[in-house]
Amino acid sequence: MNIGVIGLGYVGLVTAVCLATQGHRVIGVDVAQATIDQLQNGKPPIYETGLAELLRQAQSGSVIRFTTDIAHAIKESTVLFVTVETSSLPDGSPDLSQVWEICDQLAIYGQAGQLVIIKSTVPVGTTDAFAERLSNNHHIQFLDVVHNPDFLQQGRAVDDFLSPDRIVVGYENESTIPLINELYHFNQTPIQFCRRTSAELINYAANAFLAMKISYINMFSQLCETFGADVADIAQSIGNDPHIAPHFLKAGIGYGGSCIAKDIHTLIQTARAEGVPLPLLEAADRVNAWQMTRFVERIEQRLDTLADKRIALFGLSCKPGTDDIREAPSLRFTEIALAKGARIVAHDPLVKAFPYPQVELFSDPYTCMQGADAIVILTDWPDFRAINWKRMCELPNEPLLFDGCNLFSIQEIKMLAGSCPLEYHSIGRPCVKTFESEKQVR
Ligand code: NAD
């Protein structure tokens, strides 16, 4: 099948490369010349586990090409994916300008019988409006405009695309169904066909539910800190209930990223515009914001002040396994801590640029720790487990470790604290503290 993918970011590039390795011929298009140059040289401009290898495979088989020429890409394709960004405006409403731009390009260059698949996350009603705008501006009939929400998680997007737990397609025209089955022939996952508006809402409902789960356990983390309980015990027990399930029950500094955080804001805003209140989601979002504020305040209290304190951040990306920092917790932490006068340095395995020029980035974790008044973990990168944390104990200051992701178990920290003086704070769990003189673990 000849497939065009318009917008080669985290979703589009994974879609393009994976489809090219599954028997389709793909042409990927992006407005960014630098992106196309890099891809033509075999280098993905973003990091996703396994993506570079699959790109190499597709390029050596000549089943994928990249261009900035959208007219050419549209004319060459039977199926066209729309995978451009739908970011939030400052008031939380979605910015659909990139989606409408593509719609207008399709109206100019599209051909009869083509299938348009919107993979970008769009507010309910957008796919219908897209189809209507296309038919108003175009004299030839497209096969259909469908919404096929993307559930991939950054950091494991390739696996999620090739072996998804579900595929949802909101469609209008029955003739679309065989084409969609052929498109996704490479996996056994049943495809749920539904109304376009349902597909759009499914996307938001999924992310909003995960946001609620995260905020639910974070709400309990506050209670645990008050009563001296351990939130990990609570998460383990309720997660063993199959009605609840263990995923997204890890307490931490709250959700971020370009999906959950952005989507919940868009959903609240679009529902509010229609006069439909979503009190559960509004509460989840308030808990999320409060969780980070509380975390920074705990560090401030422990250090008496953040003014002129050197804070070493470990983890800037919104999740492990990606270099994406859009709406990452590290941005909010930095904003609050800088406003309180902190000096911030940071280390991340993949992120090499950060929008705050005051923040010095170190590729070496041990250099980053030097002179820190507090070390703060903001992303649960598995790489951080390989760091020799005992070296933290050689620092001149008494080492203070604030783990915003509960990366370590209390047991692991107690073992570390047995061999060096350490004070460890995490979310919803007791503080572990070794006193140099007594070598005592509380
Ligand atoms: P992104 O910003 O990484 O990628 C968008 C790409 O589109 C960029 O490379 C940009 O240069 C390109 N682009 C912009 N205008 C264009 C145009 N006119 N023609 C061609 N290319 C153009 O975005 P993303 O993270 O891949 O997200 C895309 C959509 O998928 C969003 O709606 C997002 O909400 C949704 N989504 C994202 C994820 C995720 O994990 N990132 C998961 C599920 C859904």
TrEMBL record:
<keyword id="KW-0520">NAD</keyword>
<feature type="binding site">
    <location>
        <position position="86"/>
    </location>
    <ligand>
        <name>NAD(+)</name>
    </ligand>
</feature>
<dbReference type="InterPro" id="IPR008927">
    <property type="entry name" value="6-PGluconate_DH-like_C_sf"/>
</dbReference>
<feature type="active site" description="Nucleophile">
    <location>
        <position position="259"/>
    </location>
</feature>
<dbReference type="InterPro" id="IPR036220">
    <property type="entry name" value="UDP-Glc/GDP-Man_DH_C_sf"/>
</dbReference>
<feature type="binding site">
    <location>
        <position position="121"/>
    </location>
    <ligand>
        <name>NAD(+)</name>
    </ligand>
</feature>
<feature type="binding site">
    <location>
        <position position="319"/>
    </location>
    <ligand>
        <name>substrate</name>
    </ligand>
</feature>
<dbReference type="GO" id="GO:0051287">
    <property type="term" value="F:NAD binding"/>
</dbReference>
<feature type="binding site">
    <location>
        <position position="30"/>
    </location>
    <ligand>
        <name>NAD(+)</name>
    </ligand>
</feature>
<dbReference type="GO" id="GO:0000271">
    <property type="term" value="P:polysaccharide biosynthetic process"/>
</dbReference>
<dbReference type="InterPro" id="IPR014026">
    <property type="entry name" value="UDP-Glc/GDP-Man_DH_dimer"/>
</dbReference>
<dbReference type="InterPro" id="IPR014027">
    <property type="entry name" value="UDP-Glc/GDP-Man_DH_C"/>
</dbReference>
<dbReference type="InterPro" id="IPR017476">
    <property type="entry name" value="UDP-Glc/GDP-Man"/>
</dbReference>
<dbReference type="InterPro" id="IPR028357">
    <property type="entry name" value="UDPglc_DH_bac"/>
</dbReference>
<protein>
    <recommendedName>
        <fullName>UDP-glucose 6-dehydrogenase</fullName>
        <ecNumber>1.1.1.22</ecNumber>
    </recommendedName>
</protein>
<feature type="domain" description="UDP-glucose/GDP-mannose dehydrogenase C-terminal">
    <location>
        <begin position="312"/>
        <end position="410"/>
    </location>
</feature>
<feature type="binding site">
    <location>
        <position position="326"/>
    </location>
    <ligand>
        <name>NAD(+)</name>
    </ligand>
</feature>
<dbReference type="GO" id="GO:0003979">
    <property type="term" value="F:UDP-glucose 6-dehydrogenase activity"/>
</dbReference>
<comment type="similarity">
    <text>Belongs to the UDP-glucose/GDP-mannose dehydrogenase family.</text>
</comment>
<dbReference type="Pfam" id="PF03721">
    <property type="entry name" value="UDPG_MGDP_dh_N"/>
</dbReference>
<dbReference type="InterPro" id="IPR036291">
    <property type="entry name" value="NAD(P)-bd_dom_sf"/>
</dbReference>
<feature type="binding site">
    <location>
        <begin position="248"/>
        <end position="252"/>
    </location>
    <ligand>
        <name>substrate</name>
    </ligand>
</feature>
<feature type="binding site">
    <location>
        <position position="262"/>
    </location>
    <ligand>
        <name>NAD(+)</name>
    </ligand>
</feature>
<dbReference type="Pfam" id="PF03720">
    <property type="entry name" value="UDPG_MGDP_dh_C"/>
</dbReference>
<dbReference type="InterPro" id="IPR001732">
    <property type="entry name" value="UDP-Glc/GDP-Man_DH_N"/>
</dbReference>
<dbReference type="Pfam" id="PF00984">
    <property type="entry name" value="UDPG_MGDP_dh"/>
</dbReference>
<keyword id="KW-0560">Oxidoreductase</keyword>
<feature type="binding site">
    <location>
        <position position="256"/>
    </location>
    <ligand>
        <name>substrate</name>
    </ligand>
</feature>
<comment type="pathway">
    <text>Nucleotide-sugar biosynthesis; UDP-alpha-D-glucuronate biosynthesis; UDP-alpha-D-glucuronate from UDP-alpha-D-glucose: step 1/1.</text>
</comment>
